[in-house]
Design goal:
This protein is an alpha+beta fold and 178 residues long. It is 44% helix and 17% strand. The chain has seven helices and seven strands. Helix 3 packs across helix 5. Bound molecules: zinc ion (2 copies).
């Protein structure tokens, strides 16, 4: 699936509505999550790996928290469903999900978010709002391509598949304007 040139999906809006304009009334949020998780399971299968129960549980929780979750908060939520879950269990699941590009680790807040993009040819570009702490993934392939080329020609290489930018989100911009 080709990504739109510049499609902002913010943590302030209902994600599926943004992805599928016009269909908002026909899908309940639980259906959306199931569709998302089934898509992730298919991607895993294509890679010869499997979205196990714990991995699916963790990814589902990230999906339900568009602004991301810290590992510690994630563990608490996982334990509500699997009381015997240990930190290594959750960390291994997170390692798997980030390794497969199904989730992203946003460094500054050490927050994990579900990836809502069909694939990553390019790194993920994340906008972190300094006012509300919201995280959005910005899909701007042309900008990323140019950034990668500029890095390469200056002899640099990205050290993670996530690029983070501090940017005030539209909701906070609206609040701040008179
Ligand atoms: Zn992503
Ligand atoms: Zn904000």
């Amino acid at each position: 699936m080709a990504a739109p040139e510049c499609d902002v999906i913010t943590s302030h809006s209902n994600i599926p509505d943004a992805l599928y304009p016009g269909t908002e009334a026909s899908l309940s949020s639980l259906d959306d999550q199931e569709i998302f998780l089934e898509g992730a399971a298919t991607r895993c299968k294509e890679q010869g790996v499997s979205l196990t129960t714990i991995r699916r549980l963790v990814l589902g929780l990230l999906y339900r928290h568009p602004s991301g979750l810290k590992a510690y908060d994630l563990l608490a939520l996982v334990r509500q469903e699997r009381s015997n879950a240990t930190p290594p269990t959750v960390y291994r699941a997170l390692d798997f999900l980030t390794g497969q590009g199904l989730a992203h680790k946003i460094g500054r807040g050490n927050v994990f978010v579900a990836c809502r993009h069909a694939s990553h040819r390019l790194p993920g570009l994340f906008l972190l709002c300094p006012s509300c702490g919201g995280i959005s993934e910005l899909y701007a392939d042309a900008a990323l391509q140019a950034l990668l080329q500029a890095l390469e020609s200056s002899g640099h290489r990205l050290d993670s598949p996530e690029v983070e930018i501090s940017a005030v989100c539209p909701a906070c911009v609206a609040l701040a304007s008179p």
